[in-house]
Amino acid sequence: MERNITLDYFKVLLSIFVITVHIGPLTASYPHLNWLISQGLGRITVPCFFIINGYYLVKKIDDNKAMKKYILHLLLIYAVWSTIYISLYIKEINLITLLEYCAFGILHLWYVAALISGSILFFLVKKIVKKDNVLLILSIVILLVGIFLEPFRGEYLFVVRNGFFIGFPFVFLGYYIHAKNLVNKVKNIYLTPLVVLSFIALCVESSFARLTGFYHDLYFSQIIFCPAVLLFVFKHSHYKKNNTYLTYLGSLASAIYFIHYFVIIMLADIEMPYMIIRFAIVLLLSIFLSVLIIYINKRIKIFL
Questions:
Q1: Phi, psi of 239 (to 5 degrees)
Q2: Alpha-carbon distance 33 to 110, whole Å?
Q3: Radius of gyration for the alpha carbons in the chain, expressed in angstroms and rounded
Q4: Which of 88, 196, 218, 231 lies 20 to 30 A from 99 at CA?
Q5: Whose CA is closest to 185, among 222, 234, 240?
Q6: Paired sense of beta strands 239-241 and 2-4, if any
Q7: pLDDT tens for residues 136-190?
Q8: Tens-place pLDDT, residues 268-292
Q9: Which residues are registered as beta bridge partners of 239?
Q10: Residue 156 and residue 112: Cα distance in Å, rounded?
Q11: Sign of the torsion formed by the C-alpha atoms of 248, 300, 112 and 209
């Protein structure tokens, strides 16, 4: 069995991007560049992870047993990590907040909650709507509505950060890429300019967001850029025979994603002269702890 080594490296890059969202590494020195990295590129992480998950749902979506196993595994992971993070704030949480965290996710775990509910929604809708092109239009419409509603969410982030407005549409886009064999059908002569132009659009859109001071989860440009950049990755992927090292690499991105916020919390009260130093320390400790998590998960499969 061969692994897509290019995709594994790209997933690790995405996990580093998500740390920049929570720790702007260049905040003081280069504020505009920092914003473009943390609130521009950093915001592609979750949509791209949804698309990757959707891409590999093709073989499961019509298999009830496979989907049940997949969802139960996600629920187990979600329960374990939610328990870890909720325990850090247990003295500050009331019943309403606890229910909210369980339903929509605490901190960055909203991604897992949205992946679970979005995948279930896709599974159910796919049984009713058989035409993928109809679902494509539906997904884009839902994303556009989510983008329109986002400025009105206020402090209630879960209004848009959920399986309906983000999870389902991007999971479906990943499925659509695989189901329609777009990796082979879309030619580089069209794909490369699309990636470049949508990247520029993302930079422009996120720069405008900086002027307004609004922290977006969704941008219009993500609808094009995220599928396009993943198409590019899949189209130029290299594969290698699976071994222990590659298995670890394949799990590293997920482990970094789950553990990095724990490291951020543990270091919160420690003063550091520059954010780039804090970022580097969080990244290195996250990688170190991730290796431990991967090692433990080989024996007790509850973390990844």
A1: -120, 145
A2: 27
A3: 19
A4: 218
A5: 234
A6: antiparallel
A7: 999 999 999 999 999 988 888 889 999 999 999 999 999 999 999 999 999 999 9
A8: 989 888 899 999 999 999 999 999 9
A9: 4
A10: 18
A11: negative
Instruction: For tokens 């999971």, name the residue.
Output: 171
Burial of 170 (0-12, 13-18, 19+ CB in 10 A): buried
3-state secondary structure the chain: CEEEHHHHHHHHHHHHHHHHHHCCCCCCCCHHHHHHHHHHHHHHHHHHHHHHHHHCCCCCCCCHHHHHHHHHHHHHHHHHHHHHHHHHCHHHCCHHHHHHHHHHCCHHHHHHHHHHHHHHHHHHHHHHCCCHHHHHHHHHHHHHHHHHHHHHCCCCHHHCCCHHHHHHHHHHHHHHHHHCCHHHHCCHHHHHHHHHHHHHHHHHHHHHHHHHCCCCCCCCCHHHHHHHHHHHHHHCCCEEECCHHHHHHHHHHHHHHHHHHHHHHHCCCCCCCCHHHHHHHHHHHHHHHHHHHHHHHCCCCCCC
Q: What tokens does 299 get?
A: 């024996």
Residue-wise pLDDT for 99-117, tens only, equals: 999 999 999 999 999 999 9
**Which token pair is 117?**
């509910």
Which tokens hold the place of 144? Answer: 């556009």
- Can you list the pairs that 267-274 forms with residues at least 24 positions away whose Cβ atoms lie under 8 Å? 274/28, 274/29
Yes or no: say if 131 and 182 are a contact pair by the CB < 8 Å rule. no
Separation in Å, CA 212 to CA 123, 146, 205: 38, 18, 11
Question: Do residues 245 and 295 lie in contact, with contact meaning Cβ atoms separated by under 8 Å?
Answer: no
